[in-house]
């Protein structure tokens, strides 16, 4: 199978697998004081250092069960009015909606056809009394890179905290140094599923989401898995070592894919301010469901995996002004470290041929 769904999850790096395997047999609780527990704790702390090395230096990292927990924690652990964007992940939008039901004022800013927020509109919305501004670094559906440094500046000028959903950009796109809260996930950088993190700037205090033993210093309760933490740490270490190589590889694959797609395809979202491992395109009249059914040996997406069963058109594609028909005729091709040029060529040839057959039969 040709795997082109890197935004949903990434293949496990061999280095991450190797780091995890010993902890299948070493079962001690990393929060226990005996020797075996201390050994597990040491492995967790080594991993924490590797993961934190790709984040700003003036904060602390708490491991979580994933980015969804981290985002819920960051939003529900703060107070005051919230400003966010219409193209955010459901973990943000739904958490913000829940906060709104708890009588926190909420404003959801629109984006333009390029998927980017208007900073003038953002400056008008982010006023004194705002407690939190939340925005993605790299959009999971269309890959556009939001001006998060500018949004953080506006948040701080209003006395608010800035939360960055960096799940798709962590290790791949330059991380702004001015964020207060950063949510990340291991399985988006060739690590294991089931572990993520929330980075919290020193001085930014948030209330706990999970109550209990308070095992993680910033207030997160629950027993950590040394195996998952070790895998996350190894994946982050490799990302730090070969980040530039990965970026160059992805840029070449993007150019190759664009060159091989026919003129009937249109890129959704900005092409300039964008991570090139995400190619979201549409073709008029395309039946994406039939396309995916026919191309069973090519794994790609019609949108976010988190909403794949809803039957609704993508809220991100709707937010950039696409009609229901245009949104439903869009596909997302995600590629990265382990994708080859030959796989891109083969996948696009198959997609083009299947789309052409649909046009012939229409």
Structural summary, described in words:
The chain has 11 helices and 12 strands. By secondary structure, the protein is an alpha/beta fold. It has 2 domains: 2-8 and 242-361, Alpha-Beta Complex (Aspartate Aminotransferase, domain 1); 14-238, Aspartate Aminotransferase, domain 2. Helix 6 links the parallel strand 5 and strand 6 (161-165). Helix 2 (35-52) runs parallel beside helix 7 (226-260), helix 3 runs parallel beside helix 4 (90-101) and helix 7 (226-260) crosses helix 11 (341-361). It is globular. The model has no long low-confidence stretch (mean pLDDT 95).
Sequence-ordered SSE layout with sheet pairings:
Elements: E1 2-3, H1 14-20, H2 35-52, E2 59-64, H3 67-76, E3 81-85, H4 90-101, E4 106-109, H5 119-125, E5 130-136, H6 148-157, E6 161-165, E7 181-185, E8 196-201, H7 226-260, E9 265-267, E10 278-283, H8 288-294, E11 298-299, H9 315-319, H10 324-328, E12 330-334, H11 341-361
Parallel strand pairs: 1-11, 3-4, 3-5, 5-6, 6-7
Antiparallel strand pairs: 2-8, 7-8, 9-10, 10-12
Helix pairs in contact: 1-7, 2-7, 3-4, 7-11
Number of helices: 11
Strand order, largest beta sheet = 2-8-7-6-5-3-4
At the third CATH level, what is the topology name of the largest domain?
Aspartate Aminotransferase, domain 2
Amount of beta strand: 15-25%
Q: Outline the biggest β-sheet.
A: 7 strands, mixed
**Helix fraction by DSSP (H/I, runs of at least 4):** 25-40%
Distance between the termini: 28 Å
* Rg over C-alpha atoms, rounded to the nearest angstrom: 21 Å
Mean pLDDT: 95
The helix-strand sequence is EHHEHEHEHEHEEEHEEHEHHEH
Strands, count: 12
Q: Quick one: CATH class of the largest domain?
A: Alpha Beta
Specify the CATH architecture of the largest domain.
Answer: 3-Layer(aba) Sandwich
Query: Which shape, going by the Cα principal axes?
Result: globular
Low-confidence stretches: none
Tally of separate domains: 2
Structural class: alpha/beta
CATH superfamily of the largest domain: Type I PLP-dependent aspartate aminotransferase-like (Major domain)
């Amino acid at each position: 199978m040709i795997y082109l769904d890197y935004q949903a999850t990434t293949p496990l790096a061999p280095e991450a697998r190797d780091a995890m395997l010993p902890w299948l047999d070493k079962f001690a609780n990393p929060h226990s004081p005996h020797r075996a527990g201390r050994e597990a704790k040491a492995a967790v702390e080594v991993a924490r250092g590797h993961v934190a090395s790709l984040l700003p230096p003036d904060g602390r990292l708490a491991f979580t069960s994933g980015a969804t927990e981290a985002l819920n924690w960051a939003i529900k652990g703060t107070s005051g009015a919230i400003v966010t964007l219409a193209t955010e992940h459901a973990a943000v939008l739904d958490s913000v909606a829940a906060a709104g039901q708890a009588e926190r004022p909420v404003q959801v800013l629109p984006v333009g056809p390029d998927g980017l927020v208007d900073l003038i509109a953002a400056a008008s919305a982010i006023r004194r009394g705002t407690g939190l501004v939340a925005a993605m670094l790299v959009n999971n559906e269309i890959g556009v890179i939001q001006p998060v440094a500018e949004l953080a500046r506006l948040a701080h000028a209003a006395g608010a905290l800035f939360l960055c959903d960096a799940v798709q950009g962590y290790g791949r796109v330059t991380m702004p140094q001015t964020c207060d809260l950063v949510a990340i996930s291991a399985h988006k950088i060739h690590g294991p599923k089931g572990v993520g993190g929330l980075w919290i700037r020193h001085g930014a205090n948030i209330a706990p989401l999970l109550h209990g033993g308070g095992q993680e210093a910033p207030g997160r309760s629950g027993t950590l898995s040394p195996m998952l933490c070790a895998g996350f740490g190894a994946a982050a270490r490799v990302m730090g070592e070969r980040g530039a190589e990965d970026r160059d590889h992805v840029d070449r694959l993007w150019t190759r894919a664009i060159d091989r797609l026919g003129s009937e395809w249109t890129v959704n979202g900005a092409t300039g301010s964008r991570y090139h491992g995400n190619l979201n395109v549409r073709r008029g009249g395309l039946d994406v469901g039939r396309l995916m059914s026919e191309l069973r040996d090519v794994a790609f997406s019609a949108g976010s995996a988190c909403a794949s069963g809803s039957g609704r058109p993508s809220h991100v594609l709707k937010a950039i002004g696409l009609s229901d028909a245009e949104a439903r005729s869009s596909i997302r091709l995600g590629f990265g470290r382990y994708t080859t040029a030959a796989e891109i060529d083969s996948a696009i040839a198959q997609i083009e041929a299947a789309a052409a057959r649909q046009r012939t039969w229409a």
